[in-house]
Specification:
By secondary structure, this protein is α+β, with helices and mostly antiparallel strands. Helix content is 14%, strand content 35%. The protein is elongated, with a radius of gyration of 42 Å.
């Protein structure tokens, strides 16, 4: 047994020594000893076919060598295949397997930047493995993954890169310039900035995300259908001139910025056009509708649309913040300012409006922007500022020849201030100009409308005509839609809270209800804890069956909410039937009769007109000169009732 054991030991040591020769320079099982990023060249010699030679440029781009001093960009999938080749590892030594025949083997030579080269020879396949030897050392035959070598059977043309706009190592562009041809003033530049993608030429502006996505998809698909010529030769023969439509791309790569310039020639027949990458030799054929996808072929005919095509049309002025203060200022035909502030009180957050006019100033409450009714004015204003839509871009600043006509009549200014900022963040200026740049008839910034809720066109403007506006932090004069400007330019009286009266009904001790020539007086004794009301007709009698109804009337009247404000009240109130009110309710804090209109205990006078709106609601007014509002029908009926 001892001789057998000794023989086995010697054999094992021999095999171990042989395995130890498994290319001692590469103990990580890698066939090429350098990493992919250090690879500089790869040559593939295939029996019976021309050799394939690939090199990496100093900029990091892989090219295929074509002979006669020509080279071309390598297809991204071919680059991935080369990387898999250079980084492949041996699976296991193949025992009792002959080395590949040098005359029939595929020889793969890869070198690194320092000049080191390693030659791998590949033999026949055996299931999923293929025999390989390293640097003509056939003492050990390795097994490598056959699947990694499938690309060796590609035709030569398959290695060529037909993607005209793909950056080095499949990089995506960070800057795109589109020039439609012999009109450099129509060039558009879109680039990635710290704040996201923006159009920076001809004006700095955020891009429309949907259109940006379409542009980037177009760049990814910009692929030649065929190679028409290996060398451009006489560019004029192919139709390329300095005025050719072009796309210029810039890529930020680890080795620094890389630029591409893709030029096109108009259709040359067969539904295709010529295209070339100025950094490469070939001339390609691309589909004839390639330029139509980015509107380049209509740029001259629709220059304004073209230069503004990629600008974002939706503007969110408020962002995620809730402003601390908003100022709505009217400039035409007389100054008027409504300052809205957010105030934190013991009962929570409230919104207060302070209206300033040449002849008056007034303070009142507003409904919060999160009121249930989405059409409440402050809610509508915030919604409008968060979803400002651009219909068209009229002119860019600094002022050009077309700017003055739009900005000649500033009519409204709207600004807001965020918490912690002492100055307004953005000022929105609306101009009283129609689409021709003229002041429209029936100045829409002066006259309000009778309807409190419905979105309607501004008076004096043709249907669907917008309003010119500009922003303090954006270099443009734009046009927004008429219905949006209607929301932004609501008359100040519309901002008042829907709660018209907000008082403590227990402080009321006398109420007079007047209807025509009839005057009914109801009183309540001071200190009466039972809220017993008395009717004077002419002698006082306690209300019996209707006392609870009358108490309910006082509660609802003290917290009266309106369905909407419809007029200033200091103009022609005859259209609302308030020049001669049908009913009047006067409330006092004293049960004793005072000196008529000068009674100091009088706290409010509610006048009800004899006209209705389409829904049967009466027009009403508090005092004289107060805004006209809609009185709920039930309240009008309750104030016209006789209580016993």
């Amino acid at each position: 047994m001892l001789p057998v054991a000794i023989a086995l030991t010697v054999t094992s040591l021999a095999l171990s020594r042989r395995d130890s020769r498994d290319w001692r320079a590469n103990r990580s099982r890698r066939l090429f000893p350098f990493p992919w990023q250090d690879a500089a060249s790869v040559r593939i010699d295939r029996p019976g076919r021309e050799a394939l030679s690939f090199t990496r440029t100093p900029g990091g781009e892989w090219q295929i060598q074509l002979g006669d001093g020509l080279a071309d960009s390598l297809d991204p999938t071919a680059v991935q295949a080369l990387e898999a080749l250079v980084t492949m590892s041996w699976r296991e030594p193949l025992r009792d397997r002959a080395a590949p025949d040098p005359n029939r083997a595929v020889a793969i030579t890869a070198g690194n930047a320092s000049g080191q080269k390693v030659v791998i020879r590949l033999g026949d396949a055996m299931q999923n493995l293929r025999a390989a030897t390293v640097d003509a050392d056939d003492s050990v035959v390795y097994g490598v993954n056959q699947d990694l070598l499938a690309f060796l059977d590609w035709p030569d043309s398959r290695f060529r890169n037909l993607n005209l706009a793909t950056g080095p190592n499949n990089a995506k562009p960070d800057r795109v310039t589109l020039t439609p041809g012999a009109a450099p003033d129509l060039a558009i530049t879109i680039e990635r900035t710290a704040d996201g993608w923006r159009q920076t030429v001809p004006v700095n502006w955020p891009v429309d995300e949907t259109r940006l996505d379409l542009l980037l998809r177009w760049i990814d698909r910009l692929r030649g259908e065929s190679i028409e010529a290996e060398q451009t030769g006489d560019l004029a023969w192919f139709g390329f001139t300095d005025d050719s439509p072009r796309v210029e791309l810039s890529y930020n790569t680890p080795g620094g910025p890389v630029r591409r310039r893709i030029e096109f020639r108009k259709a040359v027949g067969n539904g295709a056009i010529y295209a070339r990458d100025t950094a490469r030799n070939p001339v390609f054929a691309v589909p004839g509708d390639t330029l139509a996808e980015i509107s380049m072929d209509v740029a001259r005919e629709h220059a304004t649309l073209w230069t503004n095509f990629y600008r974002r049309r939706g503007i969110n002025l408020l962002g995620a913040a809730v402003p601390e203060a908003v100022t709505v200022e009217r400039l035409l035909p007389f100054p008027e300012k409504l300052e809205i502030t957010r105030t934190v009180e013991a009962g929570g957050v409230s919104w207060i409006g302070f209206l300033t006019r040449p002849d008056q100033s007034e303070r009142f409450r507003l409904d919060p922007p999160d009121a249930d009714n989405a059409m409440r004015p402050l809610t509508a204003l915030f919604t409008g500022l968060s979803n400002l839509r651009v219909k068209t871009f009229l002119a860019d600043v600094p002022p050009g020849p077309d700017t003055a006509k739009w900005t000649e009549f500033p009519a409204w200014r709207i600004s807001y201030r965020n918490p912690g900022n002492p100055a307004p963040d953005t000022v929105l200026t609306l101009y009283a100009a129609n689409e021709a740049g003229d002041l429209p008839s029936g100045n829409p910034f002066v006259h309000g409308r009778a309807e409190p809720v419905d979105l309607q066109s501004l008076p004096g403007l043709p249907a669907r005509v917008g309003i010119a506006f500009s922003l303090s932090d954006q270099p443009a004069v734009m046009e927004t839609y008429g219905e949006l400007s209607y929301l932004l330019c609501l008359p100040p009286y519309r901002y008042r809270s829907a709660r018209v009266i907000d008082q403590e009904h227990r402080s009321w001790h006398r109420i007079e209800l007047i209807q025509g020539e009839e005057r009914r007086v109801y009183t309540r004794k001071r200190g009466d804890p039972n809220e017993q009301w008395w009717r004077h007709d002419p002698d006082p009698e306690p209300l019996m069956d209707d006392n609870n109804l009358f108490v309910r009337l006082t509660v609802e009247l003290s917290q009266l909410r309106s369905d909407g404000f419809v007029g200033e009240g200091n103009g022609d109130i005859g259209e609302f039937g308030l020049d001669r009110p049908e009913r009047i309710a006067i409330v006092y804090t004293s049960p004793e009769q005072g000196d008529g209109d000068d009674d100091p205990s009088r706290v409010l006078t509610l006048a009800i007109g004899d006209r209705y709106d389409d829904s049967g609601r009466r027009f009403a007014q508090l005092g004289t000169g107060g805004p006209v509002f809609l009185l709920p029908a039930r309240m009008a009926e309750a104030l016209g009732r006789t209580y016993h």
